[in-house]
Amino acid sequence: MNLSFTEKSVWISLVSTVLVYGYYFVRVFEQAGNPDFGTMNTLGLFVRVVIAIVVIEIVLHSLMAVAGRRKDGSEPDQRKDERDNLIDLKSARIAYGILGFGVVCSAGGVLFSDNAVLMANIILFFFILSEVVKFATQLFYYRRGF
């Protein structure tokens, strides 16, 4: 399967986001029932996860760029064309609809819970979910030949 540079980049972002933030949310939501659940329990984990995702993305994208070099040493064409821009726009529209829904649901959840850390993590969950949906939608459109 011959993938473009942009499509490979989306795959890297999708897999790394699902794995790293999947770990984060499993850990956070299993602690949510704990009466001591609070900022200090999740802050350290959140910082480690953000650092991990940045390092993973940098390393994998760098490796992909090095591996993608042509035999003559020139760089592959990484410019976005109209098709890439259209795929980005369609994917963002779907993803941010999900984000908006999640924020509204979280705002309504404030009425039923006084735990601000839990509400912040639910909003973060919907943000990450919207990014995963955006990446998955982009891959769908690339594979569909949009």
Question: What is the element layout, followed by pairings?
Answer:
Layout: H1 5-31, H2 39-67, H3 82-109, H4 116-144
Helix pairs in contact: 1-2, 1-4, 3-4
Description:
This protein is mainly alpha-helical. 77% of the residues lie in helices and 0% in strands. It has one domain. The protein starts with a helix and ends with a helix. The mean pLDDT is 86.
Short account of what is shown:
The protein has one domain. 77% of the residues lie in helices and 0% in strands.
Task: Please describe the structure with a list of short key phrases separated by commas or semicolons.
single chain; 146 residues; mainly alpha; 0% strand
Overall tally of structural domains: 1
Low-confidence stretches: none
Residues in helix, %: over 70%
Task: Quote the beta fraction.
Answer: under 5%
Number of strands: 0
Average pLDDT metric: 86
**N/C terminus separation:** 17 Å
Largest sheet: none
